Amino acid sequence: MTLSGKTAVITGSNSGIGLGIVHELAKAGVNVVLNSFTNSEEDHALAIEIAKEYGVKAKYVSADMSKGNDCRRLIADAGVCDILINNAGIQHISPIQDFPVDKWDAIIAINLSSVFHTTAAALPLMRVAGWGRVINIASAHGLRASPFKAAYVSAKHGVIGMTKVVGLETAKEAITANAICPGYVLTKLVEGQIPATAKEYGISEEEAINTVILAKQPSKEFVTVEQLAGIVTFLCSDSAAQITGTSINADGGWTSQ
């Protein structure tokens, strides 16, 4: 089976992991719908650039993943959704007793509730098409906890639970639902944190990576955006047709400890 001509909706995809997935799927001939909460000329120009580079259809749809109606409108505006990649997410770090309620609400809404809304809207389209893939970008924090990340850990655990439910509800159809659980990924955002971390601890950047940022990642190597995008493409393939309701760890051994 070729993925050429399929349509993928990727939330939170004008940068970072989401944009990497856009490139990989477009390279495979998949039409792509990019998304974020912004609505700039640059956002729409990015979609035009993707379409020209890979010879696929591409468009950008602005939608706020903290709002259920926006999540569902994103799928409606796409019109077709063979592949749904729930990638949008935010983070905030704070002790529970000091955790701002608005931050809790926003993280649960964007990281967890959006997955429910987009999936609920996309499944009917997949059933009409007779084929579908739901791929949720969870986290190693969906399997392990860390202090001061109550909302993020709770949301990502919830995403894995929801993935299992969707996998069971679609088990007799040509639709699969899976989660990918990355460890620390080398994005531009993380790259920018390395010098600041080194300065904060008074150590070299290499030491900052090995002893602070990747302290929990036994491989002492970052996961790359390209590696995650490759896993997405695999999960969309026929080879993964019987992989459903589960999670794939890409964390350098973190969750094996």
Report on this model:
There is one protein chain. By secondary structure, the chain is α/β, with parallel strands linked by helices. It has 2 domains: 7-183 and 224-251, Rossmann fold (3-Layer(aba) Sandwich), CATH 3.40.50; 186-222. It is built from 8 helices and 7 strands; from the N terminus they run E-H-E-H-E-H-E-H-E-H-E-H-H-H-E. The model has no long low-confidence stretch (mean pLDDT 97).
Describe the structure concisely:
The protein is 47% helix and 15% strand.
Describe this protein with a few key phrases.
single chain; 257 residues; Rossmann fold
Strands side by side in the biggest sheet: 3-2-1-4-5-6-7
Distance between the termini: 37 Å
Query: If classified by CATH, what would the architecture of the largest domain be?
Result: 3-Layer(aba) Sandwich
Give the SSE order as H and E letters: EHEHEHEHEHEHHHE
Task: Specify the structural class.
Answer: alpha/beta
Helix amount, in percent?
40-55%
CATH superfamily of the largest domain: NAD(P)-binding Rossmann-like Domain
Number of domains: 2
For the residues shown, what is the average pLDDT?
A: 97
Sequence stretches where pLDDT stays below 50 over 5 or more residues: none
**What is the alpha-carbon Rg in Å?**
18 Å
What's the CATH topology label of the largest domain?
Rossmann fold
- The CATH class of the largest domain is identified as Alpha Beta
Coarse shape: globular
